[in-house]
Amino acid sequence: MDTALEQPRTPPRERAAERLLVPVRYALRRLRLHPARTLVAALGIAVAAAVLALTLVASTAAQDRAVQRALAQLQPSDRAVQAVWSGVPAQSSLSLRTLDRLARAAITPVLGLRPSRVEVFRQATWGGAFVNLGAVDGLARWVDLLGGRLPRPCTPAECELLQIGGAPVQPRLPGLRVVGRGAFRPGAPFGQYFGAGGESRPPILVANGVLGFARVPLPDAALIARTYGWVAPLAPRAVHDWQLARLTGRLDAAQASLERRSDIFTVAGPTDTIASIRATSRVAAQRLLVLGGDAAVLLLGFAVLASARLRRDHDDVRRRLTWMGARRSQLLLVAATESALVTLAASAVGWLAGAGAGALLARHLGDPADLAVSHALLSGRALGLAAALAAVTAAVMLVALRADELAVAGARVTAADTAALGALAAVLLALARGKADASSLQQSGTGVLLLLLPALVLFILAVAVARLLGPVLRGLERAARHAPAAARVALLSLARAPGEAAPAVVFLVLSVGIAVFAFAYRATLLQGERDQARYAVPAPYVLQEDLTRLVTIQQAAPRLTGTRVLRDSGSVSDGTSFTLLALPAPALPRIDGWRSDFAAQSRARLAAAIAPHGTPRLAGTPAPRRLRFTIAGDQVGLSLVVLRPRGDFAQVDLGEHGPGTYVRRVGVRGRAVALRLSFPNTAAFVADHKEAETAQGVNDAAVGTLRLGGPFARWLGVAGMRVDAPGVFHYTVNRAADSLLQPVEPLDGQLVPVLATPAVARTASAGGVLSLRVGDSVVAARVAAVVHRFPTVDGDAVVADLPTWLLAANTAEPGTTTASELWTGERPPAGLPLQVTSQRAQEAQLRGDPIARGSIALLLVVAAVGLALAVAGLALTVLGDRTGERASLRDLEAQGATPRERRRHLLLRAATVGGLGLAGGLAAGAVVGALVVSVVTVTAGAQDAQPPLLLAFDGPLLALALAAAAGAAALAAWRSA
Amino acid sequence: MSLVEARDLFRFYATPQGTAVALQGLTLDVHAGELLVVFGPSGSGKSTLLRILAGLDRPTAGAVRVAQHDLRTLRGRALLEYRSRALGYADQHYTHALAPELSARELVPLRLALLGAPRAERERVADELLERIGLRDRADARPHELSGGERQRIAVAAALAHRPRLFVADEPTGELDAANARLLYALIRELAHGSGATTVLVSHDPGAAAIADRVVQIRDGRVSAEDGAAVVNRGGWVRVPGLREGTRVRGAVELDEVERRPRGAPAAAAGEVVARLAGVAKAYGRRRVLDAVDLEVRAGALTAVTGRSGSGKSTLLHLLAGLDVPDAGEVDVLGTEVAGLDETARARLRRAHVGVVAQGTELVPFLSALETVELALELRGRPRRGAGAALAAVGLAELAGQRVARLSFGERQRVAVARALASRPELLLADEPTARLDEENARAIGALLARLAREHGTAVVCATHDPALVEHATAELSLASLTA
């Protein structure tokens, strides 16, 4: 029988599928038989994939917590979803039942909850009682009973009421009866309907059941306006970040469906808050690209390193199969199958591990871990991202496995060089286009491109390091020509084959660089939080006037010590607006929130630049107990401006007077600084009326002579006043402006020295002279120094010495300007009628922000992972060297090198690689950190940074982490060797 | 009709040390179905010729055609087709050719599998070929479970399974003992003739001539002799501009170099026992390699340790060198019981007194030949200046600056010998030091080692199956008889 060799030579039967399956089967066999060979590579890829997954989960959880936190800060009624109808039933074609059906149909789908009905007649008198009268469905759910009992369901015949707040009342109407007292529970969403209640407001009388209440025969009820509401309360934790877009859409749909039936209907919901949160969330998500980009660089870097370590084995495979006649596509298929399977398996494991770590982090942030993980990682987009990343990683591994040689020197321009040049061009272009602040990050484009900068810069650095490695290693080798043999041989081995060390050094530069960057960026954000808190609240406590109460600082806290500050807004001649801040010059060096980068000069020098010569104070005369004056001429109004000892002003109304001599009681202690003459109110009213009712203009003026004695006789007149003789003042006063009598002030004709931001300073004329319009007055100032920013001010600022400014401003417009804030280190007593802001509370609020916490935690994780991967990379390098240097080690062993000396050879190689990687990593981290901080002007909480972030290094933590990593690397290398 | 036609082939390589030339105008025809054996000293260009015939390299100049394929211009898919269908290739390093993950039954028809042959056909061919090479019962074994001879038989069968037009074999018996080599030669002839393949077999083993239809000699990149007759006018005798004369001199071992060196006092008196094995046994797993071996190695003697592949020659040398320890028995080197020392102490003993020429020619690849010798001297605390002379002694003076990774296997082996000579050990252990050398160089190395023993009192132990070396031995120890 002929054997196969003896048979006639005919082409073997060939199947295309078989040609493809053979390499795949071979790759599978290799993986099955040598799992350990790819284990370290798989572990590294898994860790990097885990970081990415963790980033996604943490981002989702942080944003979700931010949403819930923002919603929780709203009043229940502000965050509830509700349909509101306000009107007079007699004027409406729709009955209550129709309104009810429409509103329920519109509101129920928004949150999936049936809304509660509410009806209210606001502030009306019913049966002699001035009350807010209304009804709520299911009253027991919303109120706490304080006395009596809860009302029974309201019927037309008998409608029991519960009184909330106010003095006890009892409407004298048939069927209405107050049966108990109560209070709305904190979560009751009816604030918009009934108000807060309270002793100074009309009491609330509320019935149980809207439909029943609507049938109660109240007098003229059909003609009285009322409000119906259908309210679906929104619990802060019931809505998640990823549901906001849909919620907004449902609200819009509800509004549209109700508007089609009645334009009186409005649908209310926390849409503004949602929009604001979504914008912040988007910024936070975009900012995470910094970390995502870094994690991707780590992932791909490790893939290249791992591939470089597997290359020797794959070269053997390639050689064997080439000798066996394998086609290029078959060789590719072997490598591709192995790369794909390793990457896919490692990515899947990493994704799962990242999900687990993300769940822990989400729980740490207080977010439901299962929802955060499932939404972050199981969405189509996330799974697509994971698949794409695994595919890219596999492709990178494949390219690294198949690359003929890693070029690290020479004049040949490689694909990596070209890509690096492209990346450099992209970086320069991006830098030229501007910074990534919160607003730019809400849109795609420049901001996002800027955020990808770290990854691009790291790539450029990686190529540069690979390029420089050959010369550096050769330099080291030359420097070690007279070193002991072990060191010389180790350096020779690296210098003569830099391509083998390049992946390891580059990876270490990347991983250490990312870790250093993450540590630095974390320290920067934490420092930024402290800076923001101090910038916003530049003293332990800042007290400001509460504009709803109109009580001055001087009135509310006369005994509290600290720095009194005036804050106002103003503008300069070209329209540039600024915030005016006046504080005592000596206090300037002591305020918190100042940073040396705010100005070229020190604070002491700035303080000296605006400090007054002497003690500026308004001139004037002690306020008399009674003021005697004589008028000859038209009736005129008079008021005396008195500067109280505590620093604020009193306007003492002396009345409107015609010809005659008068003595009026002043009754305020202090210094009289001006006498204001005004057009009589009655005449002004008549003139206004004439102008309104006719086409005539009115040019009335009060003209006459005022006689004053004593120290007032030496005062001067301003704006319509003329001194006829000492103590004799001729006045002409109209509706346009008041006239003034005031003493000669010390700053008359002098410029107020101020600090100004560059935009304001640029408007100054020669000599730095500026006209500052603040309120109704214009103050001439001189720019004494330029500051780039000043604590508490967002935008342009003008800073002046407080006494000097008060003098200047009150000279121009007496009695109008006084300190409005107190910056103090003393804890203010509770219950002050002022806005009190605590620096510590501000910092706690910034630190407690979920997005900030998430970002800070993620950076720590990325830093730790970067260092861990650096350690793993070094161990992998030593393991690879142990295989790659096998021939050298065997020869050295045969020549009598002891185990210790052979191990030293490996460790010296590892130390050189590690040292170069560490040095390069520190430099790379610093470069990337500086770049990111200068370009991405967003705080930990994804807000615009005010003041700008300043690169910070947590030296002790960084040193500790690097020392720990170096120790771990040394241990790993020692054990691997 | 010629299947292979090579005309005026030149192949130059650019290296940092200058241009190296491998072929200088080689002209050769091989007829269809012929079995041609090519001999030549190491570095003469044999392997380069085979790589060009295999389509793994291209000539710098000249023409080469195989079965009408112009290999100088063949590219891409056509080249792949040529390599996968027309060519069979067997290398001296069978471990390089055999995928360790596959069984013998998968390795033999691997070429067919890569061509897309159905599984049934592959298995039929595999079974038939395994039967022919006597390994049917080892069909499921993977390479590491087979002996060297068995692996090389698998490699040859795998190279011929797809019935190529041309079969090229590069020193296929280079790592086999004589008995296994004879077996393999017979198998190659049988399989090649059976399949009708034209065969080009490169070797330095004179035994290969026994199966040849024709024998040619190559020297300095040219055909220098054919069937014993000198060839002086077959092309290639031209000067190559820019080529440094003597850049790759394949000089024979220069014995005078050794004689010029100052003689050191012998470490031990001639005839004194330098090393001794008593009742030594060694096993790797279940495989017993040495059993109750006794041996005395004397100063001034060249002891040849012979035996079949796998008989434990290398193991015995490893035990003497302290690179391994016996399971039982005593190994005494210069009065020190080696087994009682830890690894560090054994390394120090080796460094101080023992020179090792390993079988695999594994040298530190990034060092030059000179640096390799200098490092050995430095490790032993000796001046480096003797390194150049030692290299000159083995005919490598011109290649002293060349990195060992770029040297041929034979040249590397000579570097290893030079290193051992330079370090003047009391005990020199050489494992197959002539395995990749042509006969002339092998004899020279043998003479050098014998002279080292005789004149310097060095105890030289060579594990070898090379008669050219054995003929210089003062004692021959057959491990087969020792372990019997």
Task: Write the topology of this structure.
The complex is a heterodimer of chains A (977) and B (484).
Chain A (H helix, E strand, L loop, with lengths): L15 H18 L1 H38 L3 H4 L1 E7 L8 H16 L4 E11 L2 E8 L6 E6 L10 E6 L11 E9 L6 H4 L9 E5 L1 H5 L11 E7 L11 H16 L6 E3 L2 H53 L4 H38 L3 H9 L2 H23 L12 H19 L4 H4 L4 H6 L1 H27 L5 H11 L2 H39 L4 E5 L7 H4 L6 E9 L5 E7 L19 H8 L10 E2 L3 E8 L2 E8 L5 E9 L2 E6 L5 E8 L2 H13 L8 E7 L7 E3 L2 E5 L2 E6 L5 E4 L9 E5 L1 H4 L7 E6 L2 E10 L10 E5 H11 L8 E4 L9 E5 H10 L1 H35 L1 H9 L4 H37 L19 H22 L1
Parallel strand pairs in A: 3-7, 5-6, 12-27, 24-26
Antiparallel strand pairs in A: 1-8, 1-9, 2-3, 2-8, 4-6, 5-7, 10-28, 10-29, 11-12, 11-25, 11-28, 13-18, 14-17, 14-19, 15-16, 15-18, 18-23, 19-22, 20-23, 21-22, 24-27, 25-26
Chain B lengths: L1 E14 L2 E14 L3 E5 L6 H8 L7 E6 L2 E2 L5 H11 E4 L3 H4 L6 H4 L2 H6 L3 H14 L15 H13 L5 E5 L7 H18 L2 E5 L11 E6 L2 E5 L2 E2 L24 H6 L12 E12 L2 E12 L3 E5 L6 H9 L6 E6 L2 E2 L5 H11 E4 L11 H11 L6 H8 L15 H14 L4 E5 L7 H18 L2 E5 L3 H4 L4 E4 H5 L1
Parallel strand pairs in B: 3-8, 3-9, 6-7, 7-8, 14-19, 14-20, 17-18, 18-19
Antiparallel strand pairs in B: 1-2, 1-4, 4-5, 9-10, 10-11, 12-13, 12-15, 15-16
Helix pairs in contact in B: 7-8, 12-13, 12-14, 13-14
